[in-house]
Amino acid sequence: MGEANTDVAAQASAVRVLAVSRVAPSALGEGQHAGLRLKLSFFDSPWVMLPPIQRVFLYELVEDGGGDQGFPAVVDRLKRALADTLAHYLPLSGRLEYVAETGDVFVDCSDAGVAFVEAEADVDVRRLAGDEEHDIPAFLGLVPELDARVLPAPVLCVQATRLGAGLAIGLSVHHAVADGRAVWRFMEAWASASREGSPVTKALGPPHYGREAVAYPNGDELGREMLRTVAPNLPTVRGDYDFSQRFLRARRTFYLDTDDIKSLRRRIDDLASAEAATAGGGHDAASSKAKPVSTFVALAALSWTAFVRSKGLGAGDDTYLMFLADLRTRLDPPVSEAYLGNCVRVCMASCADASDLLGEAGILRAARAVQEAVAAMEAAPLAGMGKGWIHTMMRLPFHRMTNVAASPRFRAYDVADFGFGKPARVELVSMNHDGEMVLVGGRHDGEVQVSVSIDPAHMDTFKACILG
Q1: What range does the domain containing 322 cover?
Q2: Of 224, 428, 434, 439, which has the highest C-beta tally within 10 A?
């Protein structure tokens, strides 16, 4: 750990902070939401104790973007666009606040504003964007600190870093206020405001964030119980975030193109058809009954079996795969895609004996377990989310669990064009789990970017399973 921390300190010194300012929402919506205090919903509460979501977007600027005149102009453009966007996405400009009398956590927007850090660093943006292996200290230096260990705490912080002829935009946002879909929609709106002059367009309508949209039976009471469970010492959420584990993991990013994904899905579907044909009914009948796997199911199954093999799990080891499901279209009444908040639930696929996920048919069994978890969620979106579910989650063996985050449907590269081109690289910096896999849409049509965090001793085996 000493060596890793030394590396981080060296990288931190390489990032020189030039200025820190505050970006307040512009007057676009002045008076409409004055003094807004938004109580967290039942869906928001479990995320209060977690560290922020941190993403970095790397750009190669071809027209004086790194020069003395270019960078200030880029920063000014980003700030003006951010101010206009925050006028619509007001909760992101607020602060999380704990009210001891009621046991609730609110977003207080009475003094709305976001810290904006301007920095520079001696980092080769092309190297950073092109390397398969993550330069973790460099990535960490390009996202702003958001300290939410004690409430009140900010919801969002932003950093723009000049990288020679390149640029990094770093984002730290508290998960208690927005889930993945909401954050990506905010990024799309901010980029649209920078590129087109408005965060709200015909294709991208305004957000809404009234928590009544995600009402849950006895939600207030259950939300407070969750807060007492995950953060029993509020307003101190945690004594300290243990980021040390980040430096004990290896991180790599791989890209699977359309042909790779088609091949993977076909492989699983063929295994299912062959197994059904062997059991009786013939190949044609089996093919008609087998449910084709989706891209997400196929990639989740691939990552799970790769994790099991790389960690040497086998007979007698139970193993799990966790992922989040977006409930917006699955609630009754449904919630629109423009909802700014959390509207996700944890889903769990399990296997009582990890040896079942080994061998040629292992990926088929993994895919079926994921399909079953998806089907159970679709049949009863809110089942099992009541009292006690979070205790069950906390008792699971995390060292035998794979966590698949985000979604291939998140168009990470398409939505983040601020007017100087698509990013050369997008990464989730806040990856902490041994066995975490992050999926987003890739740089090219049909491509999926796969980023993984795992024990370095297991990375080569994991990579062979993913790309083999």
Answers
A1: 250-467
A2: 439
